[in-house]
Amino acid sequence: MLKKALTVAILCVCIPAVVAGGIWLFGEQKYAWITLCVAVLACVPFFLTFEKSRAGAQKLALLAVMTALSVAGRVLFAALPGFKPVTALVVLTAMYFGPQAGFMAGALSALLSNFYFGQGPWTPMQMLAWGMVGFLAGVFAARLRKGRVSLLLYGAFAGVLYSFVMDIWTVLWWDGGFNAARYAAALLSSAGFTAVYAVSNVVFLLLLSKPVGRVFARLQQKYGL
Fold this sequence. Notes:
Blueprint: H1 2-25, H2 30-51, H3 57-76, H4 86-97, H5 99-117, H6 123-139, H7 141-146, H8 148-175, H9 180-189, H10 191-223
Helix pairs in contact: 1-2, 2-5, 2-6, 3-4, 3-5, 4-5, 4-6, 4-10, 5-6, 6-8, 8-9, 8-10
């Protein structure tokens, strides 16, 4: 009950209060402030739900390992912009351990890897974007596990979704408000990056889905995760 009440309070009270306060207090930069705060607040229910769940030590350890691999993969491929294994690892984690684990893996991967790439006001949006990619993968896990085509299509979709969310942030931060024409221009200018990222997700899912899936399936069977 407490978790549900807290989630309702965040979604129905805190976020509207942040929006109203941002409009009243921050003038031209209100959209930047609102986006930053909403991104952080949207993450809170997922963190609390996962923390208070009955997940055992094995599941928490596995989540830590997958997050570490995701962070290491992003750093390892730093020289190749957009070509990263982060989404693939987050999606696979969510497919076998649920939407909460997927959200946590995505959000923590963004937060921790940015200690190398640089923290900034973009970090909460990256946490939210990668977290939602993982959350949705967990929601549709049964379908994604049935066929490789569905999984690869989701990988491509996840790359587009991530880029679209971050382009919204770009427009709001630099323009001080949302402008449809500027957003369209941002999407167009980042189309190459989006395409590379979508393709990289497909490639890494092709390479990792079977071996990682076999390991996860054995762990589920052995430890009841």
